Amino acid sequence: MSILWFLLIISISVFVHELGHYLAARWQGVGVKNFGVGFGPTLLKFDRWGTTWRLNAIPLGGYAEIDGMMPGDTHGYARLSGPGKFLILVGGVVMNLLLAWGVMAALTSLQGIPQTRAEITEVVPGSLAEQAGFMVGDRVLSIDGVRLESHDQVTRFRQTTGEKVFGLLREGQEVAVRFNWDNTRERLGIVFRAEVLGYTRTSFFEGLGRAISETVIAVPRFVQEFVGSMARLLTGQQAQGIAGPVGIVNITGQAAEQGLATIVSLLALINLSLAVFNLLPIPGLDGGRILILFANVLTGGRIKPETEARLSYGGFVFLILLIVLVTINDIRNLTGG
């Protein structure tokens, strides 16, 4: 069942992303020959508005085949000004953000903002956490004397080094666990889940403002964790701050056990991650194409189409390597290897 939820979430996210490119192109009079969700053999297709819409057999990824984006083209996308091209390139990211923000705002207005704390469900044998005295069932109340407002604040202890003091609720009593964090370890060695204490209702627009502000705060942390995780993967180490298809399937299964609201929250989180990831300046991603576009504008178009094509091919190879490394990392994390 978790795989079905995973495929549904990925398909929605990809469709919305490609729809952003499609709408930005058509709004400027640029044709879109094909619009596909998934890859491989076509299961269903129909023609509408000058586009062949396809649902393909392998529901991982998608595409909007926009006229004029091939090297050497002089029509469609190629004839647009810099701002027009930028609008098409950034359209997918904008749509992912709008979907994520809309879902988060709807959840806060219908269900409310969950008030959570972290309940420790596993202490890894031989880890720093076991040595420090953490126990399964502990609830994290504070870190270094600062009361936590949400379960996801637990990982913030990594931001600085030195002695850390965790205030825990254990069998009705508050206890303190101390350890030294020198930032040389991959992880502390605890697994925790969100224990929901209650909900605070807000209006849709208050929730929308909260979602946007949280995104602004989260983006630098996401980029930092991604770069750090990539560095560890490329040197053969395990990484916790990144997940591929296998890891996301596992996360989806856990979310499904907690109910529909958690699944919808995961949809928002994946769309936020997809938006930020696509803006990274890696050739082959939207961010890489935007970087090349800006470079062409600044240099008067000195980057030749052939050079851009080679950069995109190199970026594609890098992304395939990344998928392989992340999948191996997912399996290692799931098996404890």
Q: Would you give an account of this structure?
A:
Strand 1 and strand 2 (51-66) form a beta hairpin. It is built from 8 helices and 8 strands; from the N terminus they run H-E-E-H-E-H-E-E-E-E-E-H-H-H-H-H. The mean pLDDT is 85. It has 337 residues and is α+β, with helices and mostly antiparallel strands. It has helices at residues 2-27, 82-110, 128-132, 204-234, 245-258, 260-278, 286-299, 305-335; strands spanning 32-48, 51-66, 113-123, 139-143, 146-147, 162-170, 173-181, 190-200. The protein has a domain at 114-200: Pdz3 Domain (Roll). The radius of gyration is 23 Å and the shape is globular. Helix 1 (2-27) crosses helix 6 (260-278), helix 5 runs antiparallel to helix 6 (260-278) and helix 5 crosses helix 8. Strands 3, 4, 5, 6, 7 and 8 form a 6-stranded antiparallel sheet that branches. The chain has a two-stranded antiparallel ribbon with strand order 1-2.
